[in-house]
UniProtKB/TrEMBL annotation:
Originating organism: Neogemmobacter tilapiae
GO MF terms, alphabetically ordered: DNA binding; DNA-binding transcription factor activity
Signal sequence annotation: none
Record keywords, A-Z: DNA-binding, Transcription, Transcription regulation
Residues annotated as domain HTH marR-type: 22-80
InterPro entries recorded: HTH-GbsR_regulator (IPR052362), HTH_MarR-typ (IPR000835), MJ1563 (IPR026282), WH-like_DNA-bd_sf (IPR036388), WH_DNA-bd_sf (IPR036390)
Protein name as annotated: HTH-type transcriptional regulator
Family: Belongs to the GbsR family.
UniProt-listed Gene3D superfamilies: Winged helix-like DNA-binding domain superfamily/Winged helix DNA-binding domain
Keyword Hydrolase: no
Length: 173
């Protein structure tokens, strides 16, 4: 695959952003390439295009598959796997948010529940217990809100996103 300067810059920037998101630069670059590719690519195609070692690409693809961001397909008579990224941006955002929620947000809520319960009986000062409980309650509120919104039909979610801050005009100041 021949990359234009803009395609190269997209992949490089996605790699840089990946490091800020806690993802290996190469993994983010693999995802970026698959995201903009009009057709499925083999691991060899990816390695050649990005100048990465085949083993690095294999490891990166496995990580992306664990995140459910990349899927493998096969062609009849071909032993190679062909990889594609989630192409639909709404679905991509949903997959990323759900993955981060499962890996980061939910474990934090569980930890806050545990430390809040522990703090109530171990002599932790009342103001600290209160702060822990407030933190947990706020995170549970956001999580409940997210779950309610995620259950809505896609068209309703998109309408709410487009509506955005315009809602603030209808609320009391």
């Amino acid at each position: 695959m021949d990359l234009t300067p803009a395609m190269q810059n997209f992949i490089l920037h996605w790699g840089e952003m990946g490091t800020k998101w806690g993802v290996n630069r190469s993994v983010a670059q693999i995802h970026a390439l698959l995201h903009i590719s009009p057709e499925p690519l083999t691991a060899e195609d990816i390695a050649d295009t990005l100048g990465l070692a085949r083993s690095n690409v294999s490891t990166g693809i496995k990580e992306l598959q664990a995140w459910k961001l990349v899927k493998a397909t096969r062609n009849l008579g071909d032993r190679r796997d062909f990889f594609t990224s989630v192409q639909d941006m709404f679905e991509l955002a949903h997959v990323v948010i759900e993955g981060r929620r499962a890996r980061e947000f939910q474990p934090t809520i569980e930890a806050l529940r545990a430390v809040s319960a522990e703090a109530e009986g171990d002599g932790t000062p009342a103001h600290v217990v209160k702060r822990m409980q407030e933190t947990r309650e706020m995170m549970e509120l956001f999580d409940g809100w997210y779950q309610d919104v995620a259950r809505l039909p896609r068209l309703v979610q998109m309408a709410a996103i487009r509506l955005g801050a315009k809602v603030a005009r209808f609320l009391p100041k």
